[in-house]
Amino acid sequence: MRRYIVGLLVIIVVIIFIIIRLLSGGGAPTPKQTVLEDYANSDTTMRFVIESPTQSAKAHREIEIVVGKDNAALTVYKGYEGEEVRSKSYPMSVAAYADFLRGLRLSGHYTSGNSADSMKDERGYCALGDTYVYEIVDPSGNATQHFWSTDCGTKTFQGNAEIVQQMFKNEIPDYDTLTEDVNLNY
Questions:
Q1: Tell me: domain 36-179, CATH 1.10.10, correct?
Q2: Which of 23, 93, 99, 127 would bridge 54 by S-S if both were Cys, CB 3.0 to 4.6 A apart?
């Protein structure tokens, strides 16, 4: 008899626990998934950076492409201090930016990645190859997303790197001309 009373009490406690969980919403709220097209009318931009292998400051280069609702810009930097070599900007529109964002989301899976604190800093993971950075930058200049991939295979970015990289390059009509003297991937 005692065993049945204990079993009944356990069942009652479990039922009460389930009712409380259901009434409280089941725990912590799930964060809302970013829909990139929501940024089309904002000053939030998408940034893609190609960084050359670790080498002398004189030889080191970075190519940065920033796309927003007003323009798409390419800047080439030399050294590790970010000395600008050249920059060019092209006009954008909200409609063009919305299409770009939709492509990043649907074809490139731009917001897919590992955001573990231990992997936030991409430096050194591919010292002899190129590193690629994929960011969402808020209007104050802070990266709200920072994923990366490398020629060496190590990465936090889980989207389609090939498509995303080509989409950014396509926003710069004379990308090949502007970057023809930049020696990446030694």
A1: no
A2: 127
